[in-house]
Amino acid sequence: MMLVILMFCVVSVLGSQLPPGVKLCRRSDSELSSCLATNIADGIQLFTRGNKDLDVPVLEPFVVEKIEIEGQATSSTSLIQKYENIRMYGIADGVRITNMKIDIDKGCSWEFDAFSPVVTMEADYTIKGQVVVFPINSHGKCNITLNNLMNKNSMTCEKYVKNDKTYIKLTNYTMNMKPEKISFYFGNIFPEDERISAEVLKTLNENSLDIFNEVKPGFERAISFIYMNVANKVFSKIPIDDIFLE
């Protein structure tokens, strides 16, 4: 199971709409990548409460209506997961951006790493399937916390012209999430037997990284799809020359 990381759409508010105090980045600048990395982190803090004009949602907490994941069976895990009323915390707190690489002139792509000290997801869950030796068919409240999370983000895009101005649109967004530690809590996971519930949670947390690695591709696809759609709403409002200055 996976959590949210960095709102990539914050990159797109680095144009003329920014409040005073944030440096604009020029494509000709030899330190473009460093400038963008700094501005992404600054932008996240500036827009923690969102921005209606740019369609930037509230980042703390970041709210997602629903995520459904039908995972592939692995050696120890086979789960159909559904999360609703999702509230994600930590994506705007202490984020550090590194390894920024960008190509806007010759092509349309960029990538960066985002480090978050703590990211937490609270939601209503429904899970069916099996974890290790335990069959699961339950629903309730859950809390999933990732510590020292490194997320590798990679995006491709295309340019298009609207009203004589050039805009960009993300065409692909992938992420690779690598937490140092994960803790799971699923309430009501075995409502008829508290002892088994405790044993299941113990097993989940003792094997949290292994279980996470088996189910994370579905989560990464779902989250990156949400981020890409949000980012494209923002990009559709600001021409590329207002985002990445000449």
Q: What would you say this structure looks like, in words?
A:
Strands 1, 2, 3, 4, 5 and 6 form a 6-stranded antiparallel beta sheet that branches. This protein has one domain: Bactericidal permeability-increasing protein, domain 1. It is elongated and about 65 Å long. 24% of the residues lie in helices and 42% in strands. The chain has 4 helices and 6 strands.
pLDDT under 50 segments (min length 5)?
Answer: 1-16
Oligomer: single chain
**Shape assignment:** elongated
Number of helices: 4
Question: Main traits of this protein?
Answer:
246 residues; alpha+beta; Bactericidal permeability-increasing protein, domain 1
Give a summary of the structure in a few sentences:
With 246 residues, this protein is α+β, with helices and mostly antiparallel strands. The protein has 4 helices and 6 strands; from the N terminus they run H-E-E-E-E-E-E-H-H-H. It has one domain: Super Roll (Bactericidal permeability-increasing protein, domain 1).
Topology:
Elements: H1 32-46, E1 62-70, E2 77-89, E3 96-103, E4 109-131, E5 134-162, E6 165-186, H2 194-206, H3 208-235, H4 240-243
Antiparallel strand pairs: 1-2, 2-4, 3-4, 4-5, 5-6
